[in-house]
Design brief:
Layout lengths: L1 H13 L2 E8 L2 H9 L4 E9 L8 H6 L5 E9 L5 H11 L7 E2 L2 E2 L5 E5 L2 H17 L9 E4 L4 E2 L7 H5 L12
Parallel strand pairs: 6-7
Antiparallel strand pairs: 1-3, 1-6, 2-3, 2-8, 4-5
């Protein structure tokens, strides 16, 4: 009986772990920001949304792969909601810019959300619609919303780049609590 209870408890705890990918320009600052959020279990930078298998940074930067620079997140839904993560995502960058963020230009810097579950898609689309209706942005939101494809982890030197180098991207973190 105790074993069954432990298995059921373990299964229900595992169900609270969710994944999502965000593209918001240069992935270094985006990863740094999301790692500061309580409830984010793990984060990594990489590439998704394109056609090339095992892409390299150079290939992605050349614009030949169709991939976006993304941050993959695993989060505990009992500690941080998808709505909170979306709020952070839309504050980290300008979602009205097409294929660029700040000084970075190219399709790899597009604003994108890659979801894993249908329920996430519904939440994301409703959130974005409410942002558009609020007129918070003077231009239409250009964020791509799509089902997650393969996440291709970026080269190791890109992982936790800000922590390794002390260099920060153009990300404003003042709104994080």
């Amino acid at each position: 009986m105790k074993l069954l209870l432990l298995l059921l408890l373990h299964g229900s705890l595992m169900a609270l772990e969710k994944e999502i990918m965000f593209g918001a320009g240069c992935f270094w600052g985006v990863e740094y920001a999301f790692r500061k959020v309580s409830g984010v279990i793990d984060a990594g930078v990489g590439y998704s949304g394109g056609d090339t298998e095992f892409p390299t940074y150079r290939e992605v930067c050349n614009g030949d792969t169709g991939h976006a620079e993304v941050v993959w997140l695993k989060y505990d839904e009992s500690k941080v909601s998808l709505l909170r993560l979306l709020d952070i995502f839309y504050k980290l960058h300008d979602p009205t810019q097409v294929n660029r963020q700040g000084p970075d230009i190219g399709t790899q810097y597009r604003s994108a959300i890659f979801y894993y579950e249908d329920e996430q898609e519904k939440t994301i689309r409703e959130f974005q619609k409410s942002l558009e209706e609020s007129k918070k942005f003077s231009r239409p939101i250009a964020t791509q919303i799509a089902k997650a494809q393969q996440f291709w982890k970026a080269e190791e030197y890109h992982q936790q780049y800000n922590e390794k180098t002390g260099r920060a991207c153009h990300i404003n973190l003042d709104f994080l609590d």
